[in-house]
Amino acid sequence: MEFDTIIHDGTVVTANEIFETDIVIREGRIVALAERLSGGATRIDAGGRLVMHGGIEAHAHIAQESAAGIMGADDYYTGSVSAAFGGNSTFIPFAAQHRGQSIDDVIATYDARAAQSVLDYSYHLIVTDPTPEALNHQLPRAFKRGITSFKGFMTYDLMNIGDDGMLNIMTVAKKYGVMTMVHAENKGMVKWMNARLAEAGLTAPKYHAQSRPELAEEEAINRAISLSKLIDAPLFIVHASTEGGAAIVQREKVAGARIYAETCPQYLAFTRADLDKPGMEGAKFICSPPVRDQRTQAVLWGHVRMGTFESVSSDHAPYRYDETGKFMNGVDIPYPKVAKGMPGIAARLPHLFSEGVLKGRITAQQFVALKATNAARTFGVTRKGSITPGFDADIAIWNPEQRRRITLADQHDNMDYTPFEGMELTGVPEIVINHGNIIVETGKLKAREGQGQFVTRAPVDMDARKGHLAKELDPSQNFRAGIRP
Ligand SMILES: [Zn+2]
């Protein structure tokens, strides 16, 4: 038997097990796990290293215009390179529809942008204009392309689609076996708080935290879950940041609702004190929902540990600390005019490993589940997410002992700051492999622009309970009758 690559002598960590084995790769796939094999054109010595599935980043904004027209600083080349240096082998950024745009055009636009990617990729489709044409024809076509997640917003004037819009999207999603994702914050509360703070002249970056209260997230998560329960459609809550929101997710999971969720490194690493840095420095930490406090961090870590969250995702939103990004609307501007979002696609996994695994908050197996395996399962990435014969050879080999201080340079993105600057973390992804090809090796990029491939995703599992709707209205009845696009 001819092998392309053997990863030799490593400690393999999957979402379930830790064991010693060699990994055999041929034609981009894992073909065998076995002890002490010889041969292989390429032999990687992984002695003393942890060999894990590469990260699957399920929340990133790459080459995406905001509704206000600001283009993020990372395109699919710099974004994927940064992700690769952070130990990822696949990512699923967003393809965002803006009002008036056809979803077919949106996908064509992102296909052109993503052709630069060094990583395998798919998109979650952001839907801001759920017209009958979009719901009945364009979304089913997106599904046919293998794009099996749609995202709706409950906040932002130019993005939110209202409760009925969410229900319409979830109904289509349920019919085809698509996961609906939601940005859950109460739009009215945020708008009202912004007006009150503005009246009082409280516009420094630190007031961003007050403007988006915990209750705004808690209320919207509760409402979004209620909408999903009305039609018994699965729902994924992105970037949960509050104790109250996480508690609702946990309670509904226990009760059997098909609810999935993630949190992000910023809610585990930063607090509102960071928003209060001198001058406009706090603008670097403006993201929505906002960073909270230390007590919330401890509670969120507890939820990470107990399985409330499927994933810890970066929500990489690269707005530079200059007039192309954060200060697109001016330099000394009130917080609502600052572009919202922070970078973190390269820091996500080093932070989760160092602060999570090495500080005893999660196991190494949980780390693998949170960084890759659960995202693969939740978003229909069927041939990735596990070190298993037949699966893509997407692997990250980590030195679990190397200590380093985070710098902007080692993020390898197109940003002019990292919020993680100066943080001391232990554990470095030394070698990252996508489809059997080494893409990063000890600090050097080995990938060629455009070598990543589009991943056709499968429907999410819809073989659950019937919905609460009358039979005639229940989209799952059509689904079961075999009416598929
Ligand atoms: Zn986001």
TrEMBL record:
<dbReference type="InterPro" id="IPR050378">
    <property type="entry name" value="Metallo-dep_Hydrolases_sf"/>
</dbReference>
<dbReference type="GO" id="GO:0005829">
    <property type="term" value="C:cytosol"/>
</dbReference>
<dbReference type="GO" id="GO:0046872">
    <property type="term" value="F:metal ion binding"/>
</dbReference>
<dbReference type="InterPro" id="IPR006680">
    <property type="entry name" value="Amidohydro-rel"/>
</dbReference>
<feature type="domain" description="Amidohydrolase-related">
    <location>
        <begin position="51"/>
        <end position="438"/>
    </location>
</feature>
<keyword id="KW-0378">Hydrolase</keyword>
<keyword id="KW-0597">Phosphoprotein</keyword>
<dbReference type="InterPro" id="IPR011059">
    <property type="entry name" value="Metal-dep_hydrolase_composite"/>
</dbReference>
<dbReference type="Pfam" id="PF01979">
    <property type="entry name" value="Amidohydro_1"/>
</dbReference>
<comment type="similarity">
    <text>Belongs to the metallo-dependent hydrolases superfamily. Hydantoinase/dihydropyrimidinase family.</text>
</comment>
<dbReference type="GO" id="GO:0016812">
    <property type="term" value="F:hydrolase activity, acting on carbon-nitrogen (but not peptide) bonds, in cyclic amides"/>
</dbReference>
<comment type="function">
    <text>Catalyzes the stereospecific hydrolysis of the cyclic amide bond of D-hydantoin derivatives.</text>
</comment>
<dbReference type="InterPro" id="IPR032466">
    <property type="entry name" value="Metal_Hydrolase"/>
</dbReference>
<dbReference type="InterPro" id="IPR011778">
    <property type="entry name" value="Hydantoinase/dihydroPyrase"/>
</dbReference>
<protein>
    <recommendedName>
        <fullName>D-hydantoinase</fullName>
    </recommendedName>
</protein>
<feature type="modified residue" description="N6-carboxylysine">
    <location>
        <position position="151"/>
    </location>
</feature>
<keyword id="KW-0479">Metal-binding</keyword>
